[in-house]
């Protein structure tokens, strides 16, 4: 594959390396985050790292351009606070800091309590993202079937050629209704970190490394991509 492959003995090493990469990027437009076990670990560790960065700059005359916007490249169309949403643990962690000292703001996808439909929530998210610009860095988990965000193998959305935010109502992985970035939108991020941790990802990783174009993860490969494997 083009790009970089990095292998780690432990998931914690992968998380630490991903955070180091993110902190070297321009975060003026924020960072795109991902769901799943490892994705959530990275998100929570990133908040802690950004809080440390802010604290280190406080009172020293150093520049701090935060808070940093946190976007999610996919989200379940569920009520805000639902435990199955990707942003629920991140929102809770962000809110644990005093408002005056928060290092991040979470750009949440609207849920059914605030949006009449998943389509409307997708349009709203795309408009908000467009007003700021695509983040310079995105963290994306690879699913056991090779999916990324909520773009799944053999799904019609895999054929989408426009860079945008879309809704789906037939996700093969529950819940069925979701809001997701398209593969072309993810590819607009200048830096992509693909994460694959755990034995259940081994087959997908091998297929991606072999160039299997039926897998959404393979479509993201390029010189600006690092694949982190643990």
Descriptive labels:
single chain, 230 residues, alpha/beta, Rossmann fold, four-stranded parallel sheet, three-stranded parallel sheet, 10 strands, globular
Give a quick precis of the structure.
The chain is an alpha/beta fold. It is built from seven helices and ten strands. Strand 2, helix 2 and strand 3 form a beta-alpha-beta unit.
Describe the structure.
It contains 7 helices and 10 strands. With 230 residues, the chain is α/β, with parallel strands linked by helices. The protein has one domain (4-56, 65-229): Rossmann fold, CATH 3.40.50. Strand 2, helix 2 (36-57) and strand 3 (68-72) form a beta-alpha-beta unit. Helix 1 (11-23) packs across helix 2 (36-57) and helix 2 runs parallel beside helix 3 (88-95). The chain is globular. The two termini are 18 Å apart.
- Average residue-wise pLDDT: 94
How many domains in all?
A: 1
* CATH A-level architecture: 3-Layer(aba) Sandwich
CA-CA gap between termini: 18 Å
Q: What structural category characterises the helix and strand content?
A: alpha/beta
Q: Work out the radius of gyration.
A: 17 Å
Query: Reading side by side through the largest sheet, how are the strands ordered?
Result: 1-10-9-6
CATH class: Alpha Beta
What percentage of residues falls in helices of 4 or more residues? Answer: 25-40%
Fraction in beta strands: 15-25%
CATH topology category name: Rossmann fold
